[in-house]
Amino acid sequence: MTHIVLLDGGLGQELVHRSANPPSPLWSAQVMMDEPHIVEAVHRDYIEAGATVLTLNTYSATPERLARDAGEELFEPLQAKAIEIAREAIGSTDVILGGCLPPLFGSYSPEDTPKFEICLTTYRRIVAQQKDAVDVLICETLSSVKEVRAAVQAGVESGKPVWCGMSVMDQDGTKLRSGEPILDGALAAKEAGASAVMVNCSWPEAVTQSLPSLAQVGLPYGGFANAFTKADDLNLGGTVDVLTTRDDLSPEQYADHVMRWVDAGATIVGGCCEVGPAHISVLAERLTDAGHRLSGLPS
Fold this sequence. Notes:
The chain has about 300 residues and is α/β, with parallel strands linked by helices. It has one domain (about 5-295): Homocysteine-binding-like domain (TIM Barrel), CATH 3.20.20.330. About 40% of the residues lie in helices and about 15% in strands. It is built from eleven helices and eleven strands. The strands form two sheets. A nine-stranded parallel sheet has the order 2-3-4-5-8-9-10-1-11. A two-stranded antiparallel sheet has the order 6-7. β8, α9 (about 205-215) and β9 form a beta-alpha-beta unit. The longest helix has 16 residues, at about 75-90. The chain is globular. The N and C termini lie close together (about 10 Å). The model has no long low-confidence stretch (mean pLDDT about 95).
């Protein structure tokens, strides 16, 4: 029997779909500002579906994105609000809370990442807001080795475990979106002190391609894929309505992919954009039916 960490699914897209308002460049943070009750409802739905780890709704609440799209003064209030909502949703359950260390300016644009020292300074600011409230810090959708080194170092300095999620090319899961080998990213994460390595916000087929490289690193590994047809159509400062969803990743079809990852040794799995509570519910059932034990910590 293997202990499998079952992460939640995508937050931002689920929030946008449930919102009464059109998508904003602030994405999930905008929904939290205008309709915070939706954020708590989505968290609760993932818990009910069987997720053992929730992630803070702070992906788009970085100082850089807020300065560009709203106002940097919102940084600390939004971080605090996300923590409050997630903790309220978790309540007395055994679900653990993961922090969120995302790309600083936006997804899929490693060429716009600032210098390492600037990244490190900002990630330290984010970690300072989250570290006392979370059980683990989860890096998400990092697309270059530089981002990996900065985010993991800042997270490790807190004393909390850090799981590093990286985004790869949909057509070549062996390469980060920067073009660097995923193995280089995973090794950099290990060198910086990460406790686990993952691939996320990429096609499930690309996650499958990435796993042999992750397996070489000697850390727990896994993945949480998206269901976009072509994620990198999104431009910095743009809105997600330019993206479309695949029609071949139903909850059962997505679970088929994930079960192959588990068969390949993955012990941390879940979903990213367009993978919702229904997907996590089916996945939880498939994992338990296969004899795995759902846990908050990887085996």
